[in-house]
Amino acid sequence: MSATPKRIVLLVDSGTLPLMEQAVSLAALVEAQLEAVFIEDDELLQVASLPFSREVSLRTATVRSLNRERLQQEIDREFEQFRLRLEQTAARSRVQWECRRYAGSRREAWRESAQQVELLFAGGAQAVYRRPAQQRRLKDMVYAVYNGTEAARNAVAVALTVAEAGHLHLVVLIPETLNYHQLYQEAQELVQHSGVSSQLVPVHHPDSMPNLKVMVSGLRGTLLFLPRELEILSPLNIDELLQVIRLPVIFVP
User: What is the pTM of this model?
Assistant: First the structure.
């Protein structure tokens, strides 16, 4: 895979729409096309069809029936508003874009998209609401996990490209495995002649989802580049990971 990706796919749902601005900024930095996939939760629509379904207003605490037709209209309106914002934001950054709807769960969207694209951009509510609006653009530092695989080398290469273009600091996270010193040397060779401000940091081996969640939950910065072939990553685990991490994740093949 090239260190300069040509296509980035952004997965968004109702709770993560503000991630679009960061995805556009990333696409502008690396001069890539952006494809936004707006996920419609078909399970929620199915629940809305049940006669006993109710919704509670956060503003007024009132309870009313959950109507599928009304919910579908709200989703349609939200999609059109998102598409208009994407068009305007992409035009300002001169980014080529497209937008489509996906009826299904985020896990299903991730499973289908992960096999077809160079970079997959996703994030959870923590990445949106734990950060002030003025900090949602690309700045500060980026992270990449290096475990010696081809996907990890690609992750570091793309992270270097983004860091160089955005004048960001790169932190390479290296699992403390039995071959840690070899991994450290390999990562050092990847970054040492790049001209990018960087550092190599040992981390507890993310050999399980709890360990990976501990590793990423404390990260503060702009983006995390993860090799998509981590053994513990699956569509189910992706949802679990995005619930705790406070920055958007770029999955690299």
Answer: 0.83
Which residue range forms the structural domain that includes residue 234?
Answer: 7-43+74-252
Q: Evaluate if residue 188 carries a pLDDT over 80.
A: yes
pLDDT by residue (tens digit) across 22-46? 999 999 988 999 999 999 877 666 6
Secondary structure of the chain in HEC code, one letter for each residue: CCCCCCEEEEEECCCCCCHHHHHHHHHHHHCCEEEEEEEECHHHHHHHCCCCCEEECCCCCCEEECCHHHHHHHHHHHHHHHHHHHHHHHHHHCCCEEEEEEECCHHHHHHHHHCCCCEEEECCHHHHHCCCHHHCCCCCEEEEECCCCHHHHHHHHHHHHHHHHHCCEEEEEEECCCCHHHHHHHHHHHHCCCCCCEEEEEECCCCCHHHHHHHHHCCCCCEEEEECCCCCCCHHHHHHHHCCCCCCEEEEC
Domain for residue 122, yes or no? yes
